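Hi support team,

I'm opening this ticket because the web form for multi-chain structure prediction keeps timing out on my end. I have pasted the exact lines I submitted so you can reproduce it. The total is 1588 residues across four entries, so I didn't expect it to be a heavy job. Is there a limit I'm missing, or should I split the entries? Thanks in advance, R.K.
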Amino acid sequence: MNIELSPSELEFRDNVRSFLATSLPEELRNAAIVNISALFEYDISHAWHEILYAHGLAAPSWPEEYGGKGWTAIQEYIWRIETWRASAPVISQLGMRLVAPILLQFGTEDQKREFLPRLLSGEHYWCQGFSEPGAGSDLASLKCAAVLEEDCYVVNGTKLWQTHAHYSNWMILLVRTKDTGKPQDGITCLIVSMESAGIAVQPIKTIAGDHEVNQVFLDDVRVPVSQRIGQDGDGWMIAKHLLAVERASPGNATARLRAQLTILVENIHKNKAARDDPFIIQRLANHSIDTDVVEMLELETLQNDPHQDDGGVVASTIKLRASIVEQAIHETAVMVLGDEALEWESKRPLHAAGRSLDELKDLAVIPRYLNSRVRTIFGGSTEVQLGIIAKWLSHHQGQARL
Amino acid sequence: MNIELSPSELEFRDNVRSFLATSLPEELRNAAIVNISALFEYDISHAWHEILYAHGLAAPSWPEEYGGKGWTAIQEYIWRIETWRASAPVISQLGMRLVAPILLQFGTEDQKREFLPRLLSGEHYWCQGFSEPGAGSDLASLKCAAVLEEDCYVVNGTKLWQTHAHYSNWMILLVRTKDTGKPQDGITCLIVSMESAGIAVQPIKTIAGDHEVNQVFLDDVRVPVSQRIGQDGDGWMIAKHLLAVERASPGNATARLRAQLTILVENIHKNKAARDDPFIIQRLANHSIDTDVVEMLELETLQNDPHQDDGGVVASTIKLRASIVEQAIHETAVMVLGDEALEWESKRPLHAAGRSLDELKDLAVIPRYLNSRVRTIFGGSTEVQLGIIAKWLSHHQGQARL
Amino acid sequence: MNLKYSTEQQLLADSAHRFLTTNYDFSVRQKIVAGDIHASEKSWIRFAELGWLGLPFTEADGGFEGSETDLSIVLNALGAALVVEPYIPTVVLGARAVMLAGTESQRQVLAHVAAGDIKMCFAHNESKSNGDLSVVETKATQKDKGWEIEGTKTIVLGGGEADYIVVSARVSGEINSKNGIGLFLVPKNIKGLEIKSYYLTDGSQAATLSFRDVSVEKDCLLGATEKTFDVIEEIFDRAASALCSYIVGGLRKLIAETHGYVSTRVQFGRPLIKFQVIEHRLAEMLVAYEEARAIANFSTVSLSSSRQLRMRAVSAAKVKVGDSAKFIAHQAVQLHGGMGVTEELSVATYLKAVTVFNLLYGTPDQHRRRYERLMTNGAFATHDSLAYSIDQ
Amino acid sequence: MNLKYSTEQQLLADSAHRFLTTNYDFSVRQKIVAGDIHASEKSWIRFAELGWLGLPFTEADGGFEGSETDLSIVLNALGAALVVEPYIPTVVLGARAVMLAGTESQRQVLAHVAAGDIKMCFAHNESKSNGDLSVVETKATQKDKGWEIEGTKTIVLGGGEADYIVVSARVSGEINSKNGIGLFLVPKNIKGLEIKSYYLTDGSQAATLSFRDVSVEKDCLLGATEKTFDVIEEIFDRAASALCSYIVGGLRKLIAETHGYVSTRVQFGRPLIKFQVIEHRLAEMLVAYEEARAIANFSTVSLSSSRQLRMRAVSAAKVKVGDSAKFIAHQAVQLHGGMGVTEELSVATYLKAVTVFNLLYGTPDQHRRRYERLMTNGAFATHDSLAYSIDQ
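Hello R.K., no limit was hit. The queue was backed up. Here is the completed structure from your submission:
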């Protein structure tokens, strides 16, 4: 075993670094630094999307024929580490990393031609209509129903937790098209224009005062059959595939953590009491070691055969640990700032609050801590991950990986 | 609310202190200080029993007519705190605090006359035959069977975890006398002489090399019906009663913890690196605060009406926390001594190893840490306690105590 | 020793909780935080009518001579409802300074507090304090007719709503000398006082108070300056203890809310509480609550005891309640899943209140260090029972 | 970058585990710990035959030129079986000192090690060390024909079984100077050397070595004294990393044992593993194991890298593996219930091995502090990928 990058990989990294140094506008960078919500605010991520698109870097991991660069997993990894390191925003992952692979795998040629270029250019912005009130971790119990009437599905129901639905023009939707048999078998995947008649988006304000997620009501929404992905009843399989794709995001966890660590280190440096506090330094060291561990686990996955699914046990381990480590980092950030962190600025997005960058950095600390609580809830809660891991272990008769 | 003792209670404490100062022999004290197992070694606890008996203090909480002093709960509390504070051994609790209340409550006059005085004097030493292989937390599933033949029960089966069975001359035993109906209904309580034919005691060596517990095999052991406690089938009720009595041991948890803390403080004082280590001092402060909490919870119980059973939720909380705090104290003790703790002295009892008191104190650190692991297992594991607490909370519709 | 509530105290607790459950539920609180001043004022008047605002004052000062325990009971109920009005700044801090150090004529303000006419605050913290109570840079200079105050006070709880401010200022000595600090009772509308009001994480209100050449009368000085540091230290401890009682009330509510949620929310065909992991998590939350409750009571009973016992008990409580509160609030959010991080349910607001709690009047780390200092200086012995405190 | 085992390495792992499962199960280990010297010697010879004892040596020295990864694979297998023979003292410590600093003639000892004829140890620690590697009070004074060594070495792993001892002694400088330390290769039966052998918690063997006027030849000195501290530091790191690989093997076994136990043990009518709390606990143990495994690999690959990366990686590993190991061992005992604390099952012995692990070659606290120093001194940047290490 060895851990070092090859000379050509190091050169690739240096090229990424210089691209970022010249192409990332300072105002975007400053806005990204004080971004508090789970995703980057639409105004900054979209602006960055356009810059990347202009440089052919909107979706570098896509195949070249669709406008990507066909990067290797290690190159993607380096890209992520470097963009977070440079405090660049991350552009919407939903379209780029979830919708696109589904279209590539299951979409018709027409669907690919229609949607992939607009996704790449940023003209289309996507949200995901999977969860419902009462169907989150337990996706198979979803109730939102679609009835086929001639060449349209007529959809009725409610979806919950649609991130950025209020900015989106398209939604990828799971609906129930059959009520009998195994609940998993009656699910179908549709794509729906958010401008369709009968769609209402209701904002949900979350713990730090952000409007990031929504509840989406569908009332007799007509979706042409041509906007079905795969066959009727393929929804569960597509969702599972999407989950597997979601797992393989090389460097996502590490890059996020290293970026949060960097902000924390900066805050500790600014604050003499924190700098001299052995307990703060101890916490920082623990966070750094925990991040080293997450990175080792992620680096190992770079060599994995993407077709050899391990049931997600490694992805679950990484997700579980990275979530907890990130929460702990934000707890330390609150400790470092102390009671100075308590002033609440309610303007959102925070970067538009008309305050100085230094003030914004302090004002971001508690909102970020509060928002970090969702890390162990969304995207598969810690409890769900432990269930997956336990199942894997029993399946392997208690034998862990060597 | 107020927390202070009354002047007469303080006077009582001072009397206990002077009694201990004059009556506790130094060699017993030194042996008790390096006692590593869950109970005090028989040789020291029995010697101390004889001294207490001579002073009429072998069972001060018993009613005066049976040789006790009829102490109040607060007096008992003070006694416990002071005896641990003076590093006195604690005499066998099984006979004094478990068998005696059962005899007082359920025993015949003959049984009381026969057994209580000998228990008090120390002539009889008891062990408990409840658990079995496969029936620990799940006591109702016990299998050791007794068949009535004329005026004797004939007992066959195996009991596990009999503490000090190898020093005992009597055992209080739960047996199955009925195989039909609810498993709880077919259990009967017997008292058995350890000299009975058909009893074999097999030592179990535990993690720190101690011989403290045993497995007891019963092969056609004949027990006269006159040695049954209560009626045939009363065993489960008696076990439940015993559990309730066991819960009300005012000061037990606090006094133990304060004694362990005292040893830890002494070890830290001796060791300059530990004394100057902010992390060690932080751990010590946490242990001390945790002990303060356990004591507050115990002090509150002193005013409880013993007839008003709360289902054991407070006792469970105290047991759960005290076990964990004690384990953490011993982990710190290992850290304080560092690699100097690693030498293993296998002689048991440790106090008889022919080493100096200072050496013995160091040699006791790791065995004590290892033995402390049973705290969260025996006497109702942490998982069992959480189950009791959860049940209570649901029974009270989620309303905690004010 | 007596660690149970009396029958009267049980009644007080029941009535306080009942009153707030009926009149100050989460929707009322949300309205108040969104700016409904009328609802807030109405609540404050009701607090006065219930006798809560004058609870600890002597009868002569218009109060009810309530005990520390009585006060803790009201604070517990206020915390269960997460009341945002400045009860602690007014009754526990500002008024307490007057009680401890005021002359008879200065104490006249207390009757107005009890009646609900006057709110107060305690302006001591400065940007350089960093947890050290002796740091006072704000200056009070003696002028012919009185004093002139100059300086800035930060994170003054209730500072934007207070009618009267108790402000500390240095009369003599170095910036961090325990001697030479004066406390001054100042009305809010005095010339030269600029109040910059803002909200904290949980929607409660605080302010930065800037004193620019503020001239006050001679009789605004509270008590002798030699004793002022002790007063400040006691108020600090009383504030920390009051916050503990308040948040413990919130934690109890949070457990009830969470228990209710997991009992009704169905996943994979059964209520969440039927999953053993959830069941045990709730039990762990209850254990943490019991610990917090017990040690908060220790701090309450310590307030009328010796200085060293008080400091030990308050610091133990602030550490343990802080850790327990964080655990319970985090788990409450976790068990609520996505709903736990919306502003629709109250659970997110309780987490915010817990966050504020852990940063005010000493963080758990700061209190742990004070506890360590007391322990290593021999202010208490770890082998003694807490009940031995009286003759130490 | 390559973080997978090669096919050959996979085979090495399989054969090592298979060999020890067959020939060194828990009952064999118990016999050896109880004093069966014959069984122990037999095992040692087999280790030699399998090529484990000369694994890292060059071919010229009688070895197999195994990589750091190869060595970690064997260590992992040894840890799974909790092998008590002094493999680490001999191969990783004593022999490594000779490899790093020995002359060709001194290196002749390595072939004997590889053949299983000679065991070694590394005697550096002293009672005043307290984690500081530069502390050497033992003195080496130059005499006409060679050196005279005087001093006492404590907690020398394998010190009672070693045929050759590498001992550090001060040639010049202050007691904690990094300069002026010499390493000497000394046979066990030399005049004036008193070896007080004893057992550690887990049944492995250590000794106190007292040197009283021990005269050694001139050519016993290993390498130049200016470089000796670097050698000692590297051996310290290699020891810590080896211990990590060893104990990670044990942890994997411990999880398998625990999984097996809770799968068969029935309580309240069903196997323990059917209780969700137990199921999730096992999952948490696996997560802790994965963390330990991954970071131990980081330390392995760092050993042939720069000094700073090595120190960072080894300290990160010793901290994380230590914490994970303690968690896993505690939970393994807990889930075994009463059986977990008997000497009948192996689980108690694994806890003892974990306890020893956490006290040898730097405690988690000591390594955390070294990691902190590297971090705050800028030896690495927290925003850089571990894979960037090469050009830092």
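A quick check on our side: Strands of chain D lie at 120-123, 139-142, 146-157, 164-170, 181-187, 193-199, 205-217, 221-222, 266-267, 270-271. Let us know if the file doesn't open in your viewer.
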